[in-house]
Design a protein that fits this description.
Blueprint lengths: L3 E4 L2 E9 L6 E6 L2 E5 L8 H13 L7 E5 L5 E7 L3 H7 L5
Parallel strand pairs: 2-4
Antiparallel strand pairs: 1-2, 2-6, 3-4, 5-6
Length: about 100
């Protein structure tokens, strides 16, 4: 699980985001990142907001516990999640297929 690393009070996820997908889902590992597809376009931060909402829902956490730390304008993003451990991340972020 190269896409997860421990961070203070939680975990840091390395995400490769694919906007304008047919559906919002966890696709698979993509090198050292977890590929996530979102239906939202990459316009005015819509894809980033969709990613944060999706991860919060998927991890069963409030949206305030998920924070985009870097990669606001690129496809590879770093997302900090409060209280997330490796075992929980592996179980709840398993690919949809």
């Amino acid at each position: 699980m190269n896409w997860y690393s421990r961070a203070p009070d939680g975990g840091l996820l390395k995400i490769r985001l694919q906007p304008r997908a047919g559906r919002t889902e966890v696709a698979a590992a993509h090198g050292d990142a977890l590929r996530v597809r979102v239906a939202a376009p990459p316009v005015d931060g819509a894809a980033n907001r969709a990613l944060v909402r999706f991860l919060a829902r998927r991890l069963r956490l409030p949206r305030s516990a998920v924070e985009l730390r870097s990669g606001h304008r690129g496809r590879v993003k770093s997302v900090w999640v409060r209280g997330l451990d490796e075992r929980t991340a592996a179980g709840l972020l398993a690919p949809d297929r």
